[in-house]
Request: fold
Amino acid sequence: MKMSTKAYNDQKPGTSGLRKKISVFKQKNYLENYIQSIFDCLNNKQGKTLIIGGDGRYFNEKAIQIAIKMAAANGFGKVIIGQNGLLSTPAASHLIRHNKAFGGIILSASHNPGGENGDFGIKYNISNGGPAPQKLTDAIYKRTQIIEEYFIDEFKFIDLSNIGSTKINNLEIEIINPVTDYAFLMEELFDFEAIKAMFQGGFEMRFDAMHAVNGPYAEQIFCDMLGASKETLLNCTPSTNFGGFHPDPNLVHAKELYELMMSKNAPDFGAATDGDGDRNLIIGRGIFITPSDSLAILAANLHLIKGYKNGISGIARSMPTSMAADRVADALGVPIYETPTGWKFFGNLLDDGRITICGEESAGTGSNHVREKDGIWAVLAWLNILAVKKQSAKQVANEHWAKFGRNYYTRFDYEEIELDKANKLMKRLNEKLDSLVGNEEEGIKISTADSFSYHDPVDGSLSENQGLRILFENGSRIIFRMSGTGTIGATIRIYIERFEPADGEINLDTQVALKQLIDIAKSISDIEELTGRDKPSVIT
Ligand code: G1P
Ligand code: ZN
Reply:
């Protein structure tokens, strides 16, 4: 059936697909407009397979029903859907690869709040399992602005709770257990026997799924397969509003877990993942591991894990991620790539075999096993390393710093700033960059200041305006960037980093260690005067 739709000017995908308030998604034909725009930009999809799933938030099932009918009307041959519409983002990525599917539709607003007044999101992943590259998202956006009609079949509501296959019109609809194939992949990569023995030996973990999609994955993998006790599982029943919480695994929203891990009664290891299961938080007893350090530590130890025993070919990190991984790459003699923020930039490097592991400061870590960041993977990688090294997370981190030195790192987020104020700040700073080079700020000299652009070494594409960088002679960095995932106003992020060599003071409090650079960042940007904020909304 052909339906008319209107063009929308506000369907510009951000860092990670199209993300908006539920109220925006509920507008008549809004979702249909976007899905048809995706389909219109895909050639040769006739008869092919599409993976569909989401993080279970409010509107997930409704959106999936629409996506199925539109897939039918647009000529797909088969859809594979997670039971009850659930698929973690990394599991969806794996299913696309595993089934050699044409692509996948992932319904999620990641770590943003859910529920009736929360956020919703949709993104398209290509046949390598990864997020659509910039070229495709640009084309989709263009299409959303001129599209006039969409195609949808009329058929009954599909019961997503029934595992099995049916055929309606020319579309085969297969509902699968969302965990099975993913769990099998994890078992292939990690030494489950060693981890199991560690749990049997009394090792205790708390895993917080934040009422989101990873609950069932955690239960099957950690408890059923690895023998962890049921006490391990916190908030492991997915809910449409994430229990009324914000499913963002950081020290603010996973505060309870953090406090437990810092207390006298702390178990050995704590971890959490976000709404769609791709982000991770790692906390050892008495120590929070920053995502940047986690990437570096995993890269340095990955060869201890079964699936990576031949070592790694290279490492990639997003530009604002700390340079801790660079030191590991140097030591291993493998290349390090610095990409713009967003997982889509890792895809080409992984496909081309240039890197094995990659990560972002925003709690994203992953490897060449899928083309998304992967929360459960990161937790298993840590568990596997702890099991092999027979050390605590704190010992592993301390040993790492004692060998490579430590990159103190923090991120300040100024959220929900009025758009024009944020734009003005970034524009002003950008114009000022050239004049900063050579200046001394509090005794440290600025060596470079620029707007980051990335030349993809695989396909040659250029991505510009990916953040403003101020680099100091002593290796410190201050980076300013506008978020591409917020749904209200603008968010400005400031990333601050300082390197302390192995024989220096590697056990300082982070905010103390970075105090001088924080002051410089504020005064260079005039952020407080220009935004009227006297402090960031979130410090991580
Ligand atoms: C944020 C993170 C980025 C991540 C993205 C999607 O994007 O900073 O690293 O890839 O979420 O999870 P931002 O809001 O900064 O554009
Ligand atoms: Zn996420």
